[in-house]
Design goal:
The complex is a heterodimer of chains A (292) and B (308).
Chain A lengths: L4 E5 L2 E5 L4 H17 L2 H24 L1 H7 L4 H8 L3 H13 L5 H4 L2 H5 L6 H35 L6 H28 L3 H25 L8 H5 L1 H4 L8 E7 L2 E6 L3 H25 L5
Antiparallel strand pairs in A: 1-2, 3-4
Chain B lengths: L5 E8 L8 E8 L3 E6 L6 H8 L7 E6 L8 H4 L3 E4 L11 H11 L4 H14 L14 H13 L5 E5 L7 H14 L4 E5 L3 H7 L2 E6 L2 E7 H5 L6 E6 L9 H5 L3 E4 L4 E5 L4 H14 L2 E6 L3 H13 L1
Parallel strand pairs in B: 3-7, 3-8, 5-6, 6-7
Antiparallel strand pairs in B: 1-2, 1-4, 8-9, 10-12, 10-13, 11-12
Classes of the chains: A mainly alpha (292), B alpha/beta (308).
Chain lengths: 292, 308
C-alpha cells in the first residue's frame, strides 16, 4: 500500500487511496479479459474450434451410432479419450494466440507507453495478463470438451459418462494451459515483434517438441522433457486400457518405442514447465527496456 | 536534505556501442511550475523521460522520484507521476471509458470516483464519446485520451513528451490552457519543439544537446542571454529594395518576405535597433516592427549552434 493523496483540480475533488497489489491485479486481469473477448482472434478461434469439433461429430454421426460405438470399444471413456486427443493442440494454438504477444506488445506498439508508465509493478501486469490468457484459453478448450461430452452422451448415454475422469482431464488441461502459456509468455518477453512471438510459440511447442518426441522414440528414449508428450495425459486419464509404452517392430531385431505419459508423469512435466517458464518470463519482462 | 520530487544524478544512457544518448545529466526538480526540456532531435530528451519512469535503465547514475527508484520500486516511485511519452495507445479494443477506468483504478481512485474523474477529463479535454473504441479514434483523439489518462487521479508530477504533438491548432490551445492551469499546483516537466508553447507555459528551461545538459535557468533570463539580431518590419505599402539603402548604411542586411514585409539582420544592439526603426519610418509608414524569432527561440538556437 502507498500513502493516500488528496488534491483538487477542476470541479472534482480527487480522493486517491492506496491500492493493494490484489486490487491492481484484478484491474489488469479484467482489462485484459475485456480486450481478449473483443479480439477477432478469440472469436475466430472459438468459432474454428466449434466448427472442427462439430465436423468431427458429424463424421461420427454419418458413420452411424453402432459403428462409432464399436470403434470406441463400446465405452464412453475410450470415446472421450480419442475425441479429446487433440486438446493439447488446441491449447498450444490458443496459448500462442493469447500468450505469444502478451508481453512483446508493450515494446512494439504504443501499448507499453500507456501501461508501463502506470504505478503498477511489472510482475502484476504479467500475472494479470497470464490469468486472463489462461481464462480465455480454457474457454476455447471448454468448447472442445463440450462437443466431446455431447458426443459421448449421444453415442453412449448420459449414464455412461466417467465424470471424475473427465473432470481430471479438464484439470490437466488447465495445468497444461499454465505450462504452455508459461512458454508463450517467455518467448513473448524475448521477442520484440508480436507476430514472431506467436509463430515461434507454435513452432516450439508443436513442431519442435513433437519432432523431438518422435526422434527420441525412435532411439527408444522416453521423451520426458517434452510438454506435448506430457499433454497426452489429458486423454490418458480417460483411457481405461492405458499403456505407458508399446514396442513397435521395425524389422528384424529392430523396434521403436511409443511412449505415453501417465497422469502423474504428465502432471509433473506440466508443473515443471510452468515453474520454470513463468518466473523466467517475469525476469525477462522486468529487465526489458522500451528502446523503440 | 529531503527527497526531491524528481532527481537525476549523473544520469547516463548508452545504447550499444554508440555515443552516449545521455551523458552525466543531473538535475533536481521540486515544488510546482512548468519546466521546458528543450533540445534538438536526438539530444536525449525522450531518453531522459523514459529513464525517469523506468522504461529504460540507466547505464550509470541514478533516478529518484520522491526518493524511490522507478525500476526497483515502480509503485511508490510512479504513484504521483502522470507520464505521456512517445505515442501511448491503449488496446484498440477498449473503449475510451475502459481505457481511462483502467488507469484510474490502478492509481487508487475509489470506484465511485472513477466516473467523476473520467467526466472531468472528458470535459476538460473534449474527449470523444466514452463508448467509442480506441482503435477507431483519430490520431488527435487518441492523443487526447492518452493525455486524459496522464491526468487521471490528479498525479502531482507530470512528465510530458511533446504533449501537443498530433493535435490540431484548436486542440493545442485547449491543452495549453489546461497545462497553464495545472502548473499552478503541479510539477510539469515537458519536452517540446513548439517554442510558442514553451515561452508561454514554462517558468524554467533546461536545454540539452548531444546528451549533455547545456543550461538550466528561468525562461526570462535565458531569453535575455542573447541579443535579438533579426527583426521583421512591415511597411504600409510595397517598398523596393533600392529604397532600403539607408538601412544598409546602418549595417543591416534586408531580405524580402512579402511585397511589404522585410527581415532585417543587424548586430543586435539596442541603439542600432532604435536607429533602424527610425530609418524605416523615414522610408514608409511602419505597421509592425518586431523580433522575427521568439527571444527564447533565438537564445535556444544560439546555444545549440554554439555547442555544435
Amino acid at each position: 500500500m502507498v500513502a493516500a493523496a488528496h488534491a483538487t483540480v477542476g470541479p472534482v475533488a480527487v480522493r486517491r487511496t492506496g491500492v493493494s497489489d490484489a486490487g491492481q491485479l484484478r484491474t489488469v486481469t479484467s482489462s485484459q479479459l475485456t480486450h481478449y473477448f473483443r479480439t477477432y482472434r478469440f472469436l475466430g478461434l472459438l468459432a474454428f474450434v466449434a466448427f472442427v469439433s462439430a465436423l468431427t461429430l458429424a463424421f461420427q454421426l454419418d458413420a452411424g451410432v453402432t459403428a462409432t460405438r464399436v470403434a470406441q470399444l463400446n465405452r464412453s471413456s475410450e470415446y472421450l479419450s480419442n475425441f479429446l486427443d487433440y486438446a493439447g493442440l488446441w491449447i498450444i494454438i490458443a496459448a500462442a494466440f493469447f500468450g505469444g504477444d502478451a508481453l512483446s506488445v508493450d515494446f512494439s506498439t504504443g501499448a507499453g507507453y500507456y501501461m508501463l508508465v502506470l504505478p503498477i509493478p511489472r510482475w502484476i501486469l504479467l500475472v494479470g495478463r497470464y490469468l486472463a490468457a489462461t481464462l480465455v484459453t480454457i474457454a476455447v478448450v471448454a468448447v472442445y470438451y463440450a462437443f466431446g461430452l455431447a458426443g459421448a452422451v449421444y453415442f453412449f448415454g448420459g449414464g455412461s459418462i466417467p465424470w471424475a475422469a473427465l473432470a481430471a482431464s479438464l484439470g490437466l488441461a488447465v495445468v497444461f494451459t499454465f505450462a504452455a502459456l508459461g512458454v508463450a509468455f517467455c518467448l513473448s518477453a524475448l521477442f520484440r515483434s508480436p507476430a514472431t512471438g506467436v509463430l515461434v510459440t507454435i513452432l516450439t511447442l508443436y513442431v519442435g517438441l513433437t519432432t523431438l518426441q518422435g526422434v527420441l522414440e525412435l532411439a527408444n528414449v522416453e521423451p520426458w522433457m517434452s510438454l506435448t508428450y506430457a499433454g497426452g495425459a489429458m486423454a490418458a486419464v480417460l483411457d481405461t486400457d492405458f499403456l505407458h509404452y508399446q514396442s513397435i517392430p521395425l524389422g528384424e531385431d529392430q523396434f521403436y518405442t511409443l511412449w505415453s505419459a501417465s497422469v502423474l508423469e504428465g502432471l509433473g512435466i506440466m508443473l515443471a514447465y510452468a515453474a520454470v517458464f513463468v518466473p523466467l518470463s517475469a525476469v525477462l519482462y522486468h529487465r526489458k527496456e522500451s528502446t523503440g | 536534505m529531503s527527497d526531491a520530487l524528481v532527481e537525476a544524478h549523473e544520469l547516463s544512457k548508452t545504447f550499444g556501442s554508440a555515443a552516449p544518448a545521455l551523458d552525466r545529466v543531473s538535475f533536481r526538480l521540486d515544488g510546482t511550475g512548468a519546466i521546458g526540456y528543450l533540445g534538438p532531435n536526438g539530444a536525449g530528451k525522450t531518453t531522459t523521460l523514459k529513464l525517469l519512469v523506468g522504461l529504460l535503465r540507466p547505464t550509470s547514475g541514478s533516478v529518484r522520484i520522491q526518493g524511490f527508484d522507478p525500476v526497483a520500486d515502480r509503485k511508490r516511485a510512479l504513484w504521483e507521476v502522470g507520464a505521456l511519452i512517445e505515442t501511448p495507445e491503449p488496446y484498440p479494443t477498449l473503449t475510451v471509458y475502459d481505457a481511462l477506468a483502467l488507469v484510474g483504478r490502478s492509481r487508487g481512485l475509489p470506484v465511485e470516483d472513477v466516473d467523476a474523474e473520467i467526466d472531468r477529463c472528458h470535459t476538460e479535454l473534449e474527449l470523444p464519446p466514452l463508448a467509442d473504441r480506441v482503435g477507431g479514434l483519430s490520431k488527435g483523439q487518441r492523443q487526447r485520451v492518452a493525455l486524459a489518462a496522464t491526468l487521471m487521479g490528479d498525479p502531482k508530477i507530470l512528465l510530458l513528451d511533446e504533449p501537443t504533438s498530433g493535435l490540431d491548432p484548436a486542440e493545442r490551445v485547449v491543452v495549453r490552457r489546461l497545462l497553464g492551469r495545472l502548473k499552478r499546483d503541479h510539477l510539469v516537466l515537458m519536452s517540446s519543439h513548439q517554442m510558442v508553447e514553451v515561452a508561454d507555459l514554462c517558468d524554467e528551461l533546461m536545454i540539452l544537446a548531444r546528451g549533455r545538459l547545456l543550461l538550466r535557468d528561468r525562461t526570462e533570463r535565458i531569453a535575455e542571454r542573447v541579443p535579438h539580431r533579426q527583426v521583421d518590419v512591415e511597411f504600409a505599402a510595397a517598398v523596393a529594395e533600392a529604397a532600403l539603402a539607408p538601412l544598409q548604411a546602418l549595417g543591416a542586411t534586408a531580405a524580402q518576405r512579402t511585397e511589404r514585409r522585410w527581415r532585417l539582420a543587424f548586430d543586435g544592439s539596442e541603439n542600432r535597433r532604435r536607429e533602424l526603426l527610425i530609418a524605416c519610418q523615414a522610408i514608409a509608414p511602419v505597421l509592425e516592427f518586431s523580433n522575427s524569432l521568439l527571444p527564447v527561440e533565438e537564445a535556444y538556437l544560439e546555444l545549440v549552434a554554439r555547442d555544435a
